[in-house]
Amino acid sequence: QVHLVESGGGLVKPGGSLRLSCAASGFSFSDYYMTWIRQGPGKGLEWVAHISTTGRVTYYADSVKGRFTVSRDNARNSLHLQMDSLRADDTAVYYCARVRGGDWGQGTMVTVSS
Amino acid sequence: DIQMTQSPSSLSASVGDRVIISCRASQDISNDLDWYQQKPGTAPKRLISAASSLQSGVPLRFSGSGSGTKFTLTISSLQPEDFATYYCLQHNTFPNTFGQGTKLEI
């Protein structure tokens, strides 16, 4: 079955960087576009970034554009989110998702605080 | 960007009630809309894809309808395990956007 496992979350100071990863299994990873979605404490879901099957096409939410970079390694069935210039309002649980299949990971918590 | 207006934001109901949650898109999204259920501390679970296709294993009391700009999620007879927060997601256009969520409470 489909398995998505995020890692790399943690506590970081404002202005710092963090790199999230998502390990995918149970499906042909290179055939699916992938998405990062986040949820701040007590808040709703926010779509963050998309990457095409080849990695050549990416889209970002305005709130992270220029600061976050999504990438993928199809040989390793992995998805990444490089987060730079982090701000307090980036504090959230970050999920990787295969939107077309409706599959999500369990999420990884990112806390931006001094 | 496409705005998804979801209503109501919260709803008090009882076991056995019929509940309808609505999502309205700011422009035509065809049927590129999914419905998710989320319980505290867990990842969202997709209930409905393509506006009206029930996911495998999801009880038949859940149904979705609509196309274009107006969509509804109906729970025909609420069960105790249905008390959760529900979200719609449009994936017709980037950036994809979620509704604000509907918290279903007893």
What does this structure look like?
The complex is a heterodimer of chains A (114) and B (106). Chain A has 114 residues and is mainly beta. Chain A is 0% helix and 51% strand. Chain A has no helices and eleven strands. In chain A, the strands form two sheets. In chain A, strands 2, 4, 5, 6, 9, 10 and 11 form a seven-stranded mixed sheet that branches. Chain A is globular and about 40 Å long. Chain B has 106 residues and is mainly β. Chain B has no helices and eleven strands. Chain B has strands at residues 4-7, 10-12, 19-25, 33-38, 45-49, 53-54, 62-67, 70-75, 85-90, 97-98, 102-105. In chain B, strands 2, 4, 5, 6, 9, 10 and 11 form a seven-stranded mixed sheet that branches. Chain B is globular and about 35 Å long. At the A-B interface, strand 5 of A face strand 4 and strand 10 of B.
SSE order and pairing:
The complex is a heterodimer of chains A (114) and B (106).
Chain A: E1 3-7, E2 10-12, E3 18-25, E4 34-39, E5 45-51, E6 58-60, E7 68-73, E8 78-83, E9 92-98, E10 103-104, E11 108-112
Parallel strand pairs in A: 2-11
Antiparallel strand pairs in A: 1-3, 3-8, 4-5, 4-9, 5-6, 7-8, 9-10, 9-11
Chain B: E1 4-7, E2 10-12, E3 19-25, E4 33-38, E5 45-49, E6 53-54, E7 62-67, E8 70-75, E9 85-90, E10 97-98, E11 102-105
Parallel strand pairs in B: 2-11
Antiparallel strand pairs in B: 1-3, 3-8, 4-5, 4-9, 5-6, 7-8, 9-10, 9-11
